[in-house]
Write a structure and sequence with these properties.
InterPro entries: HAUS4
Protein name: Similar to Uncharacterized protein AN1985 acc. no. P0C0V6
Pfam family, one: HAUS4
Number of domains: 2
Radius of gyration: 32 Å
Shape: elongated
Strand content: under 5%
Structural class: mainly alpha
GO cellular component, one term: HAUS complex
Distance between the termini: 30 Å
Keywords: Coiled coil
Length: about 300
């Protein structure tokens, strides 16, 4: 079953929203996530697929053990270790059949020592299985662990499924938290603008300082909004395909352009504050506010550079 997608993402991407609607309502079964034509029948095909997956897992496990066998097996001769290294190397796998026939003599000793190699691989697999059992059932006796050998694959699959569900739930909560933070920043920005409108009648100098602070807050709110969007898209990339990742890269380019505009606006604000500073000692309070604004803007600039590096 496809994971849920925030409405804001669907709204900003109409074509993706159309594709998502077609998948969830027409092509896929909402209960199983399989295509509707194959969501119930074809048990034979499912059995064959499980068999192929099991055989593939066995092959990959054997290849991994053979690749690491020469680094830990003390009972193998130097020639036999070199033969194993050649057999498992990418160079040998890249050869065509004619070249492999020429190297067939190198593997005669390997065939004579298959029982010893099998014993080494079997011992390592048993050791690995015991380590996995100790992780799955910590603090249990060896007899209890031996009784759980047959149930180990099902236990690993169950915990993997539970872990995936936990990740999806964490991502959903991160998205919800990001939306709440965005709403808070928008509210804060609105309050600052309202306060500015009420204080404009008191003093021209004070109103200019508040204008500068309001512009800074607007920059902070905009940068935080961009930062939240980046975090949201990073969370979505954990469960979506490479096309979604490409969309995030395009958005990163947009964020880089926005950063350039923020630097330009920062320079405008700095010029205004320098004019306030040159007015005399009465502007000391405004200079202190200017220092606070500069420290906050440096923090925002660091966040933007960190997001660009990610």
């Amino acid at each position: 079953m496809l994971p849920p997608i925030p409405p804001t993402v669907l709204t900003s991407n109409p074509q993706f929203a159309s594709l998502y609607t077609t998948l969830t309502q027409t092509l896929l079964d909402p209960n199983t996530g399989c295509t509707r034509a194959f969501s119930r029948p074809n048990d034979t095909l499912d059995d064959e697929l499980r068999t192929y997956r099991a055989e593939l897992a066995k092959t990959q496990l054997l290849q991994r053990e053979l690749s690491s066998l020469t680094s830990r097996a003390n009972g193998l001769s130097e020639e036999l270790q070199e033969t194993l290294d050649l057999l498992m190397s990418s160079y040998y796998r890249g050869l065509d059949d004619k070249d492999k026939v020429l190297l067939q003599e190198e593997f005669e000793e390997l065939e004579d020592n298959l029982p010893m190699i099998g014993k080494e691989v079997s011992q390592q697999l048993l050791k690995t299985m015991k380590e996995v059992l100790m992780v799955a059932y910590p603090g249990e006796t060896e007899k209890y662990l031996e009784s759980k050998v047959d149930a180990l694959p099902a236990e690993v699959a169950l915990r993997g499924s539970s872990l995936q569900k936990g990740r999806e739930e964490l991502i959903r909560r991160q998205l919800a938290l990001g939306e709440v933070c965005g709403e808070i920043m928008e509210t804060y920005h609105g309050i600052a603008l309202r306060l500015l409108s009420l204080l404009k009648q008191k003093s021209t100098t004070t109103s200019k300082a508040l204008t500068a602070k309001s512009e800074h807050l607007a920059l902070v709110a905009e940068s935080m909004s961009l930062k939240l969007d980046v975090l949201k898209n990073q969370a979505l990339s954990a469960i979506y395909d490479p096309e979604a990742v490409d969309a995030l890269q395009n958005y990163q380019m947009h964020l880089r352009d926005t950063s350039t505009r923020l630097v330009a606006r920062q320079r405008v604000v700095e010029d205004g504050l320098r004019k306030y500073k040159s007015a005399g000692s009465d502007m000391r309070g405004l200079v202190e506010r200017y220092s606070q604004i500069m420290r906050q803007m440096e923090t925002v600039a660091k966040d933007i550079r960190r997001l660009q590096g990610a």
